């Protein structure tokens, strides 16, 4: 009888010990570990992408294409405009436009024709369409258009890299894993227990789901279930504390949402950079590098590991072996096993850096494109701004006054302009007549040089478009010249065609 009583007491003691081994972890055990994970969760949720920049590239390309087709003459422009909604085969047979707009060039020609078609009532556009450019002007136009096309192509490539959509996908996968992993987010995969899912620290291999996503690791640290009933394992999270009381295999997307919200409450900034992501990774890496267990031999563990870690991470509070943790695997003689979400975060950080660099390049290219557009407009309309033509002179000298006179005349030439256009030409704006006017002070300079500039008509050489017009310009002949103006040699039409053909070989 005494032996039977002793056996019953022994069985009761074993049962009690087993129950203690299965008891919940203590409140606050994983406060530090969860804080480390929150740094990563917040960084992934708030990663700042480059702002999408607006660009004038398409408008500038339209303008460049329009100027370009005028090099073939008025008849070519008319033919292209008439067939801008049709196809290349409709163009006049044997014409320069038929040759120069063949193949891939047809898209660019159509772009220019469509632009000019929409500017049929614009006086400047009509001037481009009827202009006969000098050889130097034609080459400048061709070179500038080519630079615009190449710059626009590079701008498009950089802008696309700045808008790398794969970054957001990397961050989402780091947070919540693949779609399949999201569908079975729990403290234990179906048919597995918590230890198999989160990690058995007695083995070298990582837990089956350890490191698959930040969400999974958060549940391994903080998640409740029948095997781990402590809601405050990761600290007092208030209304964001996990509430699942079912089996480990119960999908816990609601508890993950609460844990994510708990992390957001500790967030220190609204937007994180690539540097913030890497800093959070560094904190995490330092955390799991620290040895745990009474034998100081359990590494790459996140969360509190009790005793020697023989039975961690099973969610229990055994003083000798349990713990609610994540085990990423540790083999001293082998490289560390990869952590999926860590790889994705590093990858996203690198992509964010590249995207920011691309955005900066795109901005610089945009400014270059705007500058080239101004240059092209200046050549095509034979107008220049003071910023590109004025040379340094002594104030009050004859040369300085002559430059101011030129500026006054230049401003007066620009009619039907907007205030912004006049400003870009370094002129004031006459709102009543919607045209440019000289800035105050230039009128006086013009008056002061009136008599001095009389008879000096060599500035008319630039306005002469034909050899006949050049011959009619009067004034002082330059030494070694038999006329006031040197002859203006016009590029032959065949050479113009060749130049345009070369232009399209971009």
From TrEMBL:
Residues 411-492 form the Trypanosome variant surface glycoprotein C-terminal domain. Residues 398-415 have a biased composition (Basic and acidic residues). Residues 1-23 form the signal peptide. The keyword Methyltransferase does not apply. It is found in: Cell membrane. Residues 383-393, 441-459 have a biased composition (Low complexity). Keywords: Cell membrane, Coiled coil, Glycoprotein, GPI-anchor, Lipoprotein, Membrane, Signal. It is a lipid-anchor; GPI-anchor. InterPro entries: Trypano_VSG_B_N_dom, Variant_surf_glycoprt_trypan_C. Residues 13-369 form the Trypanosome variant surface glycoprotein B-type N-terminal domain. GO terms for cellular component: plasma membrane; side of membrane. Residues 383-415, 433-477 are annotated as: Disordered. Residues 145-188 form a coiled coil. VSG forms a coat on the surface of the parasite. The trypanosome evades the immune response of the host by expressing a series of antigenically distinct VSGs from an estimated 1000 VSG genes. This is Variant surface glycoprotein 1125.221. It comes from Trypanosoma brucei. The lineage of its organism: Eukaryota, Discoba, Euglenozoa, Kinetoplastea, Metakinetoplastina.
């Amino acid at each position: 009888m005494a032996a039977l009583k002793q056996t019953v007491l022994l069985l009761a003691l074993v049962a009690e010990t087993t129950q203690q081994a299965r008891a919940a972890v203590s409140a606050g055990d994983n406060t530090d570990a969860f804080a480390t994970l929150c740094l990563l969760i917040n960084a992934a949720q708030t990663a700042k992408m480059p702002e999408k920049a607006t660009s004038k590239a398409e408008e500038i390309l339209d303008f460049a294409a329009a100027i370009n087709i005028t090099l073939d003459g008025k008849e070519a422009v008319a033919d292209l405009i008439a067939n801008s909604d049709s196809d290349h085969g409709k163009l006049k047979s044997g014409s320069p436009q038929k040759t120069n707009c063949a193949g891939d060039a047809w898209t660019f020609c159509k772009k220019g024709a469509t632009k000019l078609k929409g500017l049929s009532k614009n006086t400047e556009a009509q001037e481009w369409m009827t202009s006969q450019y000098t050889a130097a002007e034609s080459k400048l136009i061709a070179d500038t258009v080519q630079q615009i096309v190449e710059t626009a192509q590079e701008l498009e490539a950089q802008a696309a890299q700045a808008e790398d959509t794969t970054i957001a996908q990397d961050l989402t996968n780091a947070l919540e894993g693949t779609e399949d992993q999201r569908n079975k987010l729990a403290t234990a995969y179906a048919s597995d227990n918590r230890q198999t899912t989160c990690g058995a620290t007695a083995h070298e291999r990582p837990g089956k789901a350890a490191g698959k996503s930040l969400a999974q690791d958060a549940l391994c640290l903080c998640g409740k279930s029948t095997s781990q009933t402590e809601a405050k394992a990761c600290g007092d999270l208030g209304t964001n504390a996990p509430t699942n009381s079912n089996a480990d295999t119960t999908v816990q997307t609601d508890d993950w949402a609460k844990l994510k919200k708990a992390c957001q409450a500790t967030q220190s900034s609204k937007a994180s950079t690539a540097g913030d992501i890497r800093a959070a990774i560094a904190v995490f890496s330092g955390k799991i590098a620290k040895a745990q267990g009474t034998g100081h031999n359990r590494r790459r563990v996140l969360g509190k590991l009790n005793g020697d870690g023989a039975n961690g991470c099973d969610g229990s509070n055994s003083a000798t072996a349990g713990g609610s943790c994540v085990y990423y695997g540790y083999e001293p003689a082998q490289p560390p096993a990869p952590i999926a979400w860590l790889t994705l975060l590093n990858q996203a950080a690198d992509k964010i850096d590249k995207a920011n660099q691309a955005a900066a390049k795109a901005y610089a290219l945009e400014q270059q494109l705007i500058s080239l557009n101004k240059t092209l407009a200046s050549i095509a309309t034979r107008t220049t701004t003071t910023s590109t033509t004025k040379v340094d002179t002594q104030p009050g000298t004859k040369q300085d006054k002559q430059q101011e006179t030129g500026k006054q005349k230049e401003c007066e030439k620009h009619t039907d302009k907007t205030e912004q256009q006049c400003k870009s030409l370094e002129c004031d704006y006459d709102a009543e007549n919607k045209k440019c006017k000289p800035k105050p002070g230039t009128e006086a300079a013009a008056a002061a040089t009136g008599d001095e500039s009389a008879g000096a008509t060599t500035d008319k050489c630039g306005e002469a478009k034909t050899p006949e017009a050049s011959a009619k310009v009067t004034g002082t002949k330059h030494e070694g010249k038999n006329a006031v103006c040197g002859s203006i040699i016009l590029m032959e039409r065949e050479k113009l065609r060749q130049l345009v053909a070369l232009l399209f070989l971009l």
